[in-house]
Amino acid sequence: MSLVVGNGLTHWFGRELALEGVDLVIDTGEHMAVLGENGAGKTTLLRILATMLKPTSGQLQIAGLDAFKERRRLRHYLGYAAHATGLYPALTAVENLEFFCDLQEASRTRVDESLDVVGLASVAKRRAGELSRGMQQRLALARAILHEPRLLILDEPDASLGDDAADLLTRLMRDRTVVMATHDHALANRLCQRTLVLRHGRSHGTASRLRVVK
Amino acid sequence: MNPVRVALAVARKDLRSEWRTREMVPALAQFIVLALLIGNFGFQIDGHNAPTIAPGILWLALVFAGLVAFGRTFAAEREQASLEAMLMTPASPVAIFAGKALAASLLLVICEAVLLPALTIFFGTELNGDLIFAVLLATIGMAALGVMFAALVARVRARELLLPLLTLPLWIPFVVAGGQAVQSAMGLPGNYQEAIGLLIDFDILFVVLTSLAARFVLDE
User: Fold this and answer.
1) What ipTM does the predicted assembly reach?
2) Looking at the 3D structure of chain B, how many domains does it have?
């Protein structure tokens, strides 16, 4: 069953075309990687899928709901980790997650579980501003799965994660539908069943694992 | 989703961040004391003219401290890219706005706790309940407007310039009515009840208007 159906997703930033007529269908439980050079439109597409950005034209349905008419309701089902971590540096790792539990109506028991998944249980009481960039990235990923979203949207999650990025992301993506933007073709092949290649905002088609066209 | 719970969580988060970093309150308190000191030296203050001059100095210090306090509410969120994470949740933008306004108001109230006794020390004016009540009432409406415009300008580069240009004209009713109330509370002629009534009206008007506008301002 399809969880995400996008038709003709197009977005202009002023006079600049960021995304042009992208169609995509993502099935429940599927992992899709979005590949492309810098400026290809990956982040724009992910922000549209996360309902943070309304496309200039095109339709998007998530879980059978219109993504923009029902976006507040849909956000219970969406987890999004942007390229910037968006953490509160003066709050500890636990306090950052507890705050988002309150906003997501998630149980606070999820805080410890999420920290365990990303391997940050040992630094739970440290302030986010004192953590390394990689640890901050892990904390942002923990925040994205706090409310156990059905669709997880990750913008270059591997950027600062280090050597065990693939293992961590495998744990994170288990039993979830995932759309992930990355520059790392090998990682995309390892973690995702399908890839979508963007160039200058246009889709150059999807490919199944190990058939990514450079 | 319970909007009160969200607003309280946002306010608690902001106050806890400020308590840990102490970025704003000490600087604002210092600014307020300096403003009163300059006012004290700039005017020939004596027992007769102090109640006439002191309200003006009070509102000047409060308005400029408020601009700094409210200006930081969303600027920090934008710089940290944390506003996007907050808006990505199902929480209502109005509840998030209310939480930010509540935290900013409380920070300004802390500054007022420095301002009002300092005013008494520098100008020898009476500190009474009527005066405190008038200032607190004005703080509510000023916070609602200040935080809304802070959210609006947070995404532009010249926000430090734009915030006073947008906010100050709409704060004038609070300065006028609040000024009258404070003068009356200090023993000058004037109708205290009428000024307080006006402050309550302005509070209701601007809290309602900014709450309605908040979802459009905060939504992408």
Assistant:
1) 0.85
2) 1
**Domain limits for position B118:** 3-218
The DSSP output letter for B190 is: S
Q: Within 10 Å of residue B55's Cβ, how many Cβ atoms?
A: 26
Q: Which of B72, B49, B97 is nearest to B206 (CA)?
A: B97
Contact A91 B21 (CB under 8 A): no
Q: Tell if the CB–CB gap between A103 and B9 is shorter than 8 Å.
A: yes
- For residue A43, CA distances in Å to A103, B69, B107 come to 24, 33, 37
Class assignment of domain A1-77+149-214? alpha beta
> Does A13 contact chain B (CB < 8 Å)?
no
Residues B171/B163, Cβ–Cβ less than 8 Å: no
> pTM for this one?
0.87
Walk along chain B (220 residues) in steps of 10 and give the mean pLDDT of each run. 91 94 89 89 82 89 90 84 89 92 92 91 89 94 93 82 91 93 88 94 94 82
Closest CA to A31 of A65, A3, A7, A58: A3
Nearest 5°: the CA angle B112, B44, B131 is 30
- Listed by start position, the domains of chain A span 1-77+149-214, 85-148
Which one is predicted more confidently, A210 or B207?
B207
A54 touching B (Cβ < 8 Å): yes
CB contact (8 A) between residue A103 and residue B6: yes
Q: How far apart are CA B194 and CA B181, in angstroms?
A: 8
Nearest residue to B76 (alpha-carbon basis) of B30, B21, B144, B28: B21
